[in-house]
Amino acid sequence: MCDLRRPAAGGMMDLAYVCEWEKWSKSTHCPSVPLACAWSCRNLIAFTMDLRSDDQDLTRMIHILDTEHPWDLHSIPSEHHEAITCLEWDQSGSRLLSADADGQIKCWSMADHLANSWESSVGSLVEGDPIVALSWLHNGVKLAFHDGSVHIVHRLSLQTMAVFYSSAAPRPVDEPAMKRPRTAGPAVHLKAMQLSWTSLALVGIDSHGKLSVLRLSPSMGHPLEVGLALRHLLFLLEYCMVTGYDWWDILLHVQPSMVQSLVEKLHEEYTRQTAALQQVLSTRILAMKASLCKLSPCTVTRVCDYHTKLFLIAISSTLKSLLRPHFLNTPDKSPGDRLTEICTKITDVDIDKVMINLKTEEFVL
What we know:
By secondary structure, this protein is of the alpha+beta class. It folds into three domains: 29-168 and 186-215, Methylamine Dehydrogenase, Chain H; 226-322, no CATH class; 324-364, no CATH class. 25% of the residues lie in helices and 26% in strands. The chain is built from seven helices and 20 strands. The strands form six sheets. Strands 1-2-18-17-16 form a five-stranded antiparallel beta sheet, with no helix packed on it. Helix 1 crosses helix 3, helix 3 (259-271) runs antiparallel to helix 4 (275-293) and helix 4 packs antiparallel against helix 5. WD repeats lie at residues 77-110. Belongs to the Mediator complex subunit 16 family. It comes from Homo sapiens.
């Protein structure tokens, strides 16, 4: 069950949505079991749970969640013999390291580029020694927390920038701990947390197995005029376009009124690039425009146009990849270029009538 909420204006940190799974409601959590959580550049979240029931033990399973479709959870039987203590994604977001309290380390890989299909082909064992931390080279930052609340502090001055309370009403940051009312029953606090790769969202898993996704303001809570906010979001979208990172967490901060301007400015920046770079980014910018246009009722009708164009580009690329020059000393124009010219002149839908106009001696199919 997911509760999805739109961004609140002006806040530094607010709740985006919460995921709770009713089928595990009868499970009991084990506070002594550590939890692990990791957020990939593809906006996939890997996490563990400290839940056990009569018929299943979830403490040794790895759960994969797509932030765009949080209701569709995929669970991997990890075959770890002890509780999982660490999870870490690699730079590409397609491989995941897991380690347990008995020293066993496994490397999981995406099978056929599917988020619901994983396999572990390699691993290692530090026999008898519990793994408390692991990391790939060049990994991102970490965040500390306490007392059932989330605190964001400045990396240099350690000044508190924002506070989020997960289960109680907001309290002043400087309120003494002794004045805070005691809660009945076991305390609910986050046991594992991870920032997204653009640091615009934060995921946490509490001691009852509930997963929460928080939005983090790109302006660090300071009000921005509309033009500056648009430039900031545009820069982050361009960053994701050239790095290959997924941009879902950026969309959390896009208001419907911003969509038209962002699409236009993205297109302007794209046309300023060299022809070679435009060719590399052609499909990615179409996908980005489509995801932006979904956010506004004024532009949602254009989503199908962008998806259709992506489909046509895929067909065109496939046809061109099938054409190969017959000789190494090919002319200036490749068979693919000539096919493009012919298709602009001939609108017949019969592929045989189009192909017959090509010079068959210059390519093999």
